[in-house]
Every structure is written in structure tokens, then in C-alpha cells.
Amino acid sequence: MIRFRQKIVITALLLGLMGTAPSVMANPAAEPVSQAVQDKPFAVARVALQISDGSGEKQQLVLNVANNLIKFYGADKVDVEVVAFGAGLRLLFKDNALGDQIQSLASEGVRFSACGNTIDAMAKKLGHPPELAPEARIVPAGIVRLVELNKAGFFVSRP
């Protein structure tokens, strides 16, 4: 009887894990900051944009700032990374209305980092990890990513 219950519990746990894994697994881990810097060796400006606010206005603003940086410097001359955590992670939700803009900016070389701690916290509340846009890359902690980017010479801004 005990073995039967153990099998049921183990099976339920495995099914639960398999049911949530694809959402997180679909988005790979972000490359280390040292590698990210090497991806744009000719950049004359490096900017990390923080989004930790869930409002649509702030989300649009951070994307506008990224776009303005590309327009001013040119895609090859500026290195931009948007780091989303807290309520700002909503920017990188798969069904966000700004998905086309995110895709367009990513095609210009803008990186989008999603906080793993926030994903874990949201997964506990939702019962599953949120589905993220395919452009999102997972970092262990958004604030740590910002600190590391700053140490690598990025100007950190919270529009």
C-alpha cells in the first residue's frame, strides 16, 4: 500500500515538472556578460535598461529608449540589453502586445534578459512558470545582471 502511494506521488511530481518545464526550457540562459560584450566589439556605447514596473506606459518607454539608442548610434555601434524583473517581467510575456517591437529590436541586436527569481516567484503564484517571448533569455537574478553589466562598462538606466 505504501509503495503504491509512493508511486502515485512520484508520478504526480514528475508529471507536474514535465508540465511546467517546456515554458522555462523554451528560453535559454543568457550568455555571460563577458561574452555579451564580445558580441559587439565596435560598440561606442553600452546601455542596460531596467524594467521593473508592470505598467504598459513604462514597457513602451523602455522599448522606445532602446529604439532611440539604435537610431542615434546605429545597431553596430551600440550594445543594448533590457533587463526585466519584478512586475517588469510582464514585458517579456509571450502574449504581450509589444511582442512585435521586441522582435524587431532583437533583430537589431538588443538582448532581453528575464529574471529567474521573478519567474520562480510567479510560478509559485500561478502554479506554472509564465510563458515568455522567444527573445527572452533567463538570468539568475535581474539585479545581479544589472550590476555585472555595469561592472563591464554598461550605463544602467531605468527609464
* Helical amount: 40-55%
The averaged pLDDT comes out at 87
CATH class: Alpha Beta
Low-confidence stretches: 1-25
Order of helices and strands: HHEHEHEHEHE
Total number of helices = 6
CATH architectural type: 3-Layer(aba) Sandwich
Q: What amount of the residues lies in strands?
A: 15-25%
Report how far apart the termini are: 59 Å
The largest beta-sheet arranges its strands as 4-3-2-1-5
Q: What does the radius of gyration come to? A: 18 Å
Secondary-structure content class: alpha/beta
Shape: globular
Structure description:
With 159 residues, the chain is an alpha/beta fold. It has one domain: 3-Layer(aba) Sandwich (Hypothetical Protein Ychn, Chain: A). 50% of the residues lie in helices and 16% in strands. It has 6 helices and 5 strands. The protein has a 5-stranded parallel beta sheet with strand order 4-3-2-1-5, with helices on both faces. It is globular, with a radius of gyration of 18 Å. The protein starts with a helix and ends with a strand. 31% of the residues are buried.
Question: What topology emerges from the helices and strands here?
Answer:
Layout: H1 2-25, H2 33-39, E1 45-51, H3 56-73, E2 78-84, H4 99-107, E3 111-115, H5 116-126, E4 136-139, H6 142-151, E5 155-157
Which key phrases capture this entry?
159 residues; alpha/beta; Hypothetical Protein Ychn, Chain: A; 5-stranded parallel sheet; 6 helices; 5 strands; globular; disordered N terminus
